[in-house]
Amino acid sequence: MKELDPMVFLAVFQEMLGPMLWVMLLVAVLGLLAFVALLVRERGLVSRRLVQSELLGLLGGVVALVVMARVSSSGFTDAGGPADWFLILLVYGVGAVATTILAYTVLGWWRPRRGLAAGT
User: 103 vs 112, which has greater pLDDT?
Assistant: First the structure.
């Protein structure tokens, strides 16, 4: 494969995840839009909420690895070369970042910053 074709990646992910791919993409897009709206509304990040979200992100990375192991035909014991380990780290990182953003967004809309509710 000399060139990267996005449609090949889409076909592979569709084959691996089935309809769950579209649910995950929809959640990602809606979560990102809600995150941007929250940042605009609050005019910045809330550090306490960010730390809580980062802790949940660690767990989200593990969940992403479990999902990867379930949908692929190989397990972690089959990882042999550096490319395999790079992919495992990449999946963990994407899961951790996505969970952090989604957790921050949910916490932000669920428990808004106190000064914002009073109009300050």
Answer: 103
DSSP of the chain: --S--HHHHHHHHHHHHTTHHHHHHHHHHHHHHHHHHHHHHHTS--HHHHHHHHHHHHHHHHHHHHHHHHHSS--GGG--SHHHHHHHHHHHHHHHHHHHHHHHHHHHHHS--HHHHTT-
Task: Say which amino acid occupies 93.
Answer: G
pLDDT tens digits for range 4-14:
788 888 888 88
Compute and round to an integer the Cα radius of gyration of the chain.
Answer: 18
Task: Take residue 89 and report the two structure tokens written for it.
Answer: 């780290």
For 105, the token pair is 């967004």
Q: Which of 95, 99, 20 lies closest to 65 in space, CA to CA? A: 95
Report d(CA 94, CA 86) in Å as an integer.
12
**What is the rounded distance in angstroms from the CA atom of residue 105 to the CA atom of residue 9?**
28
Q: Is the pTM of this model over 0.70?
A: yes
